[in-house]
Design a protein that fits this description.
The protein is an alpha+beta fold and about 290 residues long. Among the domains are: about 55 residues, Tumor Necrosis Factor Receptor, subunit A, domain 2, CATH 2.10.50; about 40 residues, Tumor Necrosis Factor Receptor, subunit A, domain 2. Helices cover about 35% and strands about 20% of the residues. Strands 1-2-4 form a three-stranded antiparallel sheet, with no helix packed on it. A two-stranded antiparallel ribbon has the order 3-5. The chain has a two-stranded antiparallel ribbon with strand order 6-7. The longest helix has about 45 residues. The protein is rod-shaped, with a radius of gyration of 67 Å.
């Protein structure tokens, strides 16, 4: 009895260990009856089909061997796990249901979805080429992600109340701004009539000022000339006027007048004598 209990405990222990390593689900997961046998439709994940029909569903599928895996529910063979070689590095180990996940060394990136090879990692503003190299984004495109293809610039803003402020470059798309906050002044087409009007106004103003200046200068010259003529006429009209002295009883004044009278008589006499002497001399000569 003790031996039987020990054997049962050992079986349970082995079964628990088997479950702990992920092999609890093995054999066929879905089957259908076919006479006295059953036929498997779907194996448990990580199991491959051994035979389609049989007495025991557990015997119809078996787990994949080490370093192999399967993802199909009814595959006769498991696939060998991928080996990361060269510039690849192993990111995740292979399991019975998944393949090995590989990555690339620093500065490189996977060349395809399965990372079957590595290529140079392109920075922002660049895009990968078919030759596994990088090139700058062509004009009119941009790339703001690492190792992605360049995308064309947007042709309009996402919101109708926005306008394009700056065009894009190799790193960024166009930049937009709200009209209400940052208005963009669009230059109007030049109006030839509006452009000619200031010029005509300036010319007319210049002509008027010139004529006005000429008139003022002419008036000043005419007034100056008339003033000179009046001065000349005034000088010609001015003559000597006799000095008329009023009579006075002052003795000093009377003496002065008398002296001046005597002097005048003496001058008259001297002038008469000179005239007489002149006549006598002319007679003698004759």
């Amino acid at each position: 009895m003790a031996v039987l209990l020990w054997a049962m405990g050992l079986c349970l222990l082995v079964q628990g260990c088997w479950c702990s390593v992920g092999h609890a689900d093995q054999g066929c997961m879905k089957w259908r009856e076919h006479g006295e046998d059953v036929c498997c439709d779907v194996c448990h994940p990580g199991n491959r089909l051994v035979r389609e029909c049989g007495r025991d569903p557990r015997d119809l599928c078996t787990p994949c061997e080490p370093s192999t895996f399967t993802v199909k529910p009814k595959e006769l063979r498991c696939i060998r796990c991928t080996q990361c070689v060269g510039a690849q590095i192993q990111v995740k180990e292979c399991t019975a249901t998944t393949d090995t996940k590989c990555g690339c060394k620093e500065g490189l990136t996977c060349g395809d979805e399965n990372c079957s090879f590595c290529v140079k990692k392109c920075d922002k503003g660049q895009e990968p080429t078919e030759k596994r190299s990088c090139r700058p984004c062509p004009d009119g495109t941009f790339n703001d992600q690492i190792h992605q293809m360049c995308k064309p610039w947007s042709t309009k803003c996402p919101n109708p109340d926005q306008v394009i402020m700056t065009r894009g470059n190799a790193l960024t798309d166009i930049k937009c701004a709200n009209i209400s906050t940052d208005r963009v002044v669009v230059p109007k087409k030049p109006n030839h009539t509006q452009q000619a009007w200031p010029f005509v106004l300036s010319v007319v103003t210049s002509v008027v000022l010139t004529v006005f200046s000429v008139i003022i200068v002419a008036i000043v010259l005419i007034k100056t000339k008339k003033r000179h003529q009046k001065r000349k006429e005034t000088k010609k009209i001015i003559t000597k006027t006799p000095i008329i002295r009023t009579p006075t009883d002052d003795p000093a004044t009377l003496i002065a007048v008398e002296c001046s009278f005597h002097e005048a008589q003496q001058e008259q006499g001297s002038s008469s004598e000179s005239l007489a002497s002149k006549d006598s001399s002319e007679r003698l000569i004759a």
